[in-house]
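user: can you give me the structure for this one chain? tokens are fine.
assistant: on it. calling the predictor now.
[tool input]
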Amino acid sequence: MPAAALFATAAPPPSNAAEAVRGARTTPPSAGQQDLLDQLPAGERPGFERLRRGWHARLCPLDEPERAAADAIVGFVWRGATLAALEERLLRGCLEGAVPAGLPSLAALCRYRARLAKDRELVERDLVELRDHRPQPLPASGLNPDRLEWLAARLRGQAARQEAEPVAEAAPDPSTPPPDDAPRPGAVGPRAV
């Protein structure tokens, strides 16, 4: 099969970002994110899952450590949005003259926002470091489409020859003598030459 035909069989790229997010592979959440999911109300889980799929489609984590870092970033984004909603309620209450009961102080929310930003920055740095340590692919300088076609034809030829060859018997034919270097039946140890 020519290389151009091989590439034609691949799925076409998504036409927009929404298709890319919907088609993103779903992976199980990391342990830390599973704790966050368990605490979410059932109505908020679909939104969280959409956010997670979107970030995974954007970051393309390759293995478990990268998935854990991507999940941590999703958690920071979600917590930041929750924090913004709390700030909005607190500021609206301050403007109306009645601070809602049970909300933390504005100073506490600012400290929490700074902590989230610092932790997210550390995780993003870790993700960059993990990507820097990914195994490097072998150089493919000599693998143009014609070379790939030649390699594929050669492999198909080898497979055809192997199928055409008779299958070797599991046990040797007793009428043929063993090779000179093979141990003789009943011999105790290696032969002295």
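assistant: here you go. The longest helix spans residues 64-96. The helical segments are 3-8, 17-22, 31-39, 45-59, 64-96, 106-132, 145-164.
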